[in-house]
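Quick one, tokens below. Sequence please?
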């Protein structure tokens, strides 16, 4: 299948699913999910795989075993192209449109220690600062899970304190309802963003991957 964009039916499907997250709705509209969500997602990540690696398309079912929220279905469809553990490129479609991102989404204590050691070291830490500042200047959001205070042993005036607070670090942007999401041109938008995220992903892999 050639990617021609996510149809409006994909966004409408998730809009309705947020209102009626039930098996009855899912069973009655599963064909919409397969045709308008899953098939286009498979098509666009297939375009990315030769350059960015094999993609994982997430299952639509929520794991409700340990959650107070027992709604059975995810209200978005995500795809992840990993470079290392919990590190790589991400694409999502939901009722709010399309989101593109990259970075590391979780780190074991060992990987987090490696990340903070690299951020604290002047050479690698300054390099990450330049990468993050360049992405921010290009209009990308910089986010991730962060400590509210500072890591133990870090001075309050450390020049990279904000980066040291991160327990995950991601860059991305929400395309939302931009008309491009409904066209084949989205392929080049995603590819360009993934390439822009490349230095961040490379830095994380180099300094945290075992």
């Amino acid at each position: 299948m050639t990617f021609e964009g996510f149809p409006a039916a994909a966004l409408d499907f998730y809009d309705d699913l947020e209102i009626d997250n039930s098996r009855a709705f899912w069973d009655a509209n599963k064909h919409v999910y397969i045709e308008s969500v899953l098939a286009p997602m498979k098509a666009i990540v297939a375009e990315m795989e030769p350059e960015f690696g094999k993609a994982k398309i997430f299952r639509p079912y929520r794991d409700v075993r340990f959650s107070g929220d027992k709604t059975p279905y995810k209200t978005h469809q995500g795809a992840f192209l990993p470079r290392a553990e919990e590190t790589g490129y991400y694409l999502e479609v939901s009722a709010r449109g399309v989101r593109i991102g990259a970075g590391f989404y979780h780190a074991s204590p060992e990987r987090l220690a490696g990340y903070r050691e690299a951020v604290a070291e002047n050479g690698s830490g300054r390099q990450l600062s330049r990468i993050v500042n360049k992405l921010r200047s290009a209009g990308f959001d910089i986010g991730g899970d962060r400590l509210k205070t500072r890591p133990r042993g870090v001075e309050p005036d450390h020049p990279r304190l904000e980066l040291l607070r991160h327990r995950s670090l991601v860059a991305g942007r929400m395309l939302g309802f931009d008309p491009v999401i409904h066209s084949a041109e989205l392929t080049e938008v995603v590819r360009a963003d993934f390439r822009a995220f490349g230095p961040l992903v490379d830095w994380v892999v180099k300094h945290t991957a075992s």
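The radius of gyration is 19 Å. The domain at 8-208 is CATH 3.30.930 (BirA Bifunctional Protein; domain 2).
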